[in-house]
Write a structure and sequence with these properties.
The complex is a heterodimer of chains A (443) and B (204). Chain A has helices spanning 9-14, 27-40, 43-55, 61-73, 77-90, 95-107, 111-119, 123-129, 152-159; strands at residues 137-147, 166-186, 189-208, 211-233, 237-258, 261-284, 287-296, 303-312, 320-330, 340-353, 356-367, 370-372, 377-379, 384-396, 401-414, 416-418, 428-442. Chain A is an alpha+beta fold. Chain A has a 14-stranded antiparallel barrel. In chain A, a hairpin with a 2-residue loop joins strand 5 and strand 6 (261-284). The longest helix of chain A is centred in the first third of the chain and has 14 residues, at 27-40. Mean pLDDT of chain A is 87; it is low at 1-13 and 15-22. With 204 residues, chain B is an all-alpha fold. Chain B has eleven helices and no strands. Chain B is elongated. Chain A binds chain B through residues 5-7, 10-11, 13-15, 19-20, 23-28, 30-31, 53, 56-62, 65, 90-91, 94, and chain B through 37-38, 40, 42, 69-74, 99-101, 103-108, 130-131, 134-135, 138-139, 161.
């Protein structure tokens, strides 16, 4: 890929009339020095000399090109992007430069911008990357997730609850099947589709005066469809919008009148929930900042959520990164009382071996009707999540194929819902574990 | 009448003094500019010339073109060199100067246009012919490069750079016999030359 354009050497020929001593910093001296360092692959020194020249106001195409290549070779791809873009602003016709910039964007984690750039380049450069731009599909994935239920002790504790009429629900695990795809609809617009089918088991314990009924076989089924858009604006901005439709099917006892008597009949019920969001993200060298604003009606309450997302790439590449999300949620905007919650999610990721990355995360705060990842992940369980942590392991099987295994642990809280008003009960805390396997194909 | 003659004579003398004075100021400014450039103070070298700048002065525009180029201000360099070219359209010197900032910005198509203008004035201009050959060689346009490099080698058959470029160009055109002879000539100019030895290896 590093087609050494030897016409760079003719700059030396052109500038043999330089009258300056080597100690003076001029365009000529910087050109000669950086070319020599570039030829020898002495990237650290080239970066030093180049940065010093830029500080002095010396800026030209070949300086930026060489600095871009130096940072690329040092695997600081985001810094490479800065310099290669600056060079491209001066002259966009060099195919070698465009190829470097494409791979620097890709390796920076800026796949949308890389793809957008490629769509503007000559066919010869497109072909050299091996990317099939005629294929609009960016990514396809499938996933399966399994969540455990609470321990027997917790289950027994729930059944021992007393103190008036009411009911208590306890999540008893789930199976989740997911399939998704992301594709391009225009040069700078992508759509992300995701479908989830979730089979959820719930333990329901009902107390009516002195009678108690426990149902460990209560099943809920969720069909969820998510649609998100991403629009690339300029070289730094990503804008997005989308929605999530959730269809909940469950069996429940419904009181019906039967010949003057009220009887309970098991019926299949459906609930529908919606979420909508808008987002914006700006990418800078070494970091990016995003905001997301969501509104939805999970749990039959109108709730809003604002996220502030900070991503940091200390090495200018995907070998190490940190994502901090601060969320402000109003769980019921019509209640008239303060329902604001602050949730913090911190993720740290690092490459640990060839083709292998690991990510650890921790979420602090109460997750109730909460969403993550631009509304694509929804926490709408009957039980509140008070703490969540996990680890994800990524392994790149081949160039396009990645497998991911997640382990997530969560502390949930199950509350007894009393029929009598203003009765406060102590929630039962319990731990659940979730294991997820994801297969991802990048085109 | 006598009075008029005397008055005209006085005015003429005064005019000469003014011209000489202005010229002296310009010379002084150039001197200070050269001194500043030699000590590495390009900003001062530029500023002192700007105090005497005239849009009609070829020399000032030419010098400022060079100073702006060296200080890294390519936009101003191109502007000043272009002004110098407009003032002396048949001069080769400002066109060669303009090639500096254009090459730093990789504007090769414009450089080719510029060099073609030089060659229309002086078709045998060796530096320009050599550089045209080099540009086309690096664009893999070897037939075009051949036209230019042959002219240079015909004029300077014992010049290292020209003969070496000619040899490589012949090799790229798959004229291996000619390439071999030329690489061997390079070794006469510079025995043990790495590039020539590499070329001979490839010819084998």
């Amino acid at each position: 890929m590093r087609t050494i354009t030897s016409f760079l050497c003719w700059i030396i020929v052109l500038l043999t009339t330089d009258v300056y001593a080597q100690t003076n910093t001029t365009t000529s001296s910087v050109d000669v020095e950086t070319y020599e360092l570039w030829s020898k692959g002495n990237w650290d020194e080239l970066i030093q000399v180049g940065d010093k020249a830029l500080d002095r106001g010396i800026d030209f195409y070949y300086l930026r090109y060489r600095l871009g290549v130096a940072f690329f070779e040092k695997k600081n791809y985001q810094k490479a992007v800065t310099h290669l873009r600056a060079a491209r602003n001066m002259n966009s016709s060099d195919s070698s430069l465009n190829e470097y910039l494409y791979y620097a964007l890709l390796n920076s984690g800026w796949a949308y911008q890389a793809n957008f750039l490629l769509s503007k380049l000559p066919r010869s450069v497109q072909e050299s990357t091996g990317v099939q731009l005629s294929n609009p599909i960016k990514q396809v994935y499938v996933a399966y997730s399994f969540e455990t239920g609470p321990s027997q002790t917790v289950e027994s504790t729930v059944k021992e609850v007393s103190g008036g009429s009411g009911y208590q629900l306890l999540s008893n695990g789930h199976d989740l099947f997911n399939i998704g795809m992301e594709h391009r609809v225009f040069k700078n617009i992508w759509l992300h589709h995701s479908y989830n089918f979730i089979k959820k088991a719930t333990i329901r314990h009902i107390v009516y005066d002195t009678e108690q009924i426990s149902d460990s076989e209560l099943q809920l089924y969720l069909n969820q469809y998510y649609l998100g858009t991403t629009l690339i604006l300029g070289t730094r901005w990503e804008l997005g919008a989308g929605g999530h439709y959730i269809n909940l099917i469950y069996d429940d006892l419904v009181a019906v009148s039967n010949g003057g008597r009220v009887v309970n009949r098991l019926e299949r019920l459906t609930k529908e929930n919606f979420l909508g969001f808008l987002r914006a993200k700006v990418n800078y060298e070494g970091w990016s900042l995003g905001i997301t604003s969501l509104v939805g009606n999970l749990g039959n309450r109108t709730h809003t959520q604002q996220d502030l997302i900070l991503e940091v790439y200390p090495r200018g590449n995907l070998n190490m990164y940190s994502t901090t999300v601060v969320s402000l949620q109003d769980n019921d905007i019509h209640s008239g009382i303060d329902n604001l919650s602050l949730i913090l999610n911190q993720t740290l990721g690092s490459k640990i071996a060839t083709r292998t990355w690991i990510e650890g995360f921790f979420t602090y705060g109460t997750l109730e009707n909460f969403t993550q990842s631009y509304g694509s992940i929804v926490f709408n369980d009957s039980d509140v999540i008070n703490q969540r942590y996990g680890v994800k392991l990524y392994y790149q099987i081949s160039s396009p194929l990645v497998i991911r295994i997640d382990y997530v642990g969560a502390m949930k809280a199950s509350k007894f819902v009393s029929s009598a008003p203003f009765v406060v009960t102590t929630p039962i805390n319990y731990h659940v574990s979730t294991l997820t396997a994801v297969l991802l194909w990048n085109f | 009448m006598e009075f008029l003659k005397k008055a005209s004579f006085v005015l003429l003398i005064l005019g000469c003094f003014q011209t000489v004075s202005a010229q002296n100021t310009l010379i002084q400014a150039f001197q200070v500019s050269y001194e500043a450039e030699n000590t590495g103070d390009l900003n001062k070298a530029i500023q002192v010339l700007l105090t005497v700048y005239s849009v009609d002065s070829y020399e000032t525009n030419l010098r400022l073109g060079w100073l702006y180029y060296q200080s890294g201000n390519m936009g101003e360099s191109i502007s000043k060199y272009s002004s110098a070219i407009e003032l002396k359209p048949y001069a080769i010197e400002p066109k060669l100067g303009l090639a500096y900032p254009l090459s730093a910005m990789a504007r090769w198509d414009e450089i080719i246009e510029l060099y073609n203008k030089i060659l229309s004035i002086d078709p045998q201009h060796t530096v320009t012919n050599y550089r045209m050959a080099l540009i086309y060689y690096n664009r893999n346009q070897y037939e075009q490069a051949d036209t230019y490099i042959q002219k240079v080698v015909n004029l300077y058959p014992f010049d290292y750079d020209s003969v070496l470029l000619y040899a490589w160009n012949e090799l790229m055109l798959k004229r291996t016999r000619e390439a071999r002879v030329l690489f061997q000539k390079v070794l006469l100019i510079r025995p043990g030359d790495e590039s020539a030895l590499k070329g001979l290896d490839l010819v084998k």
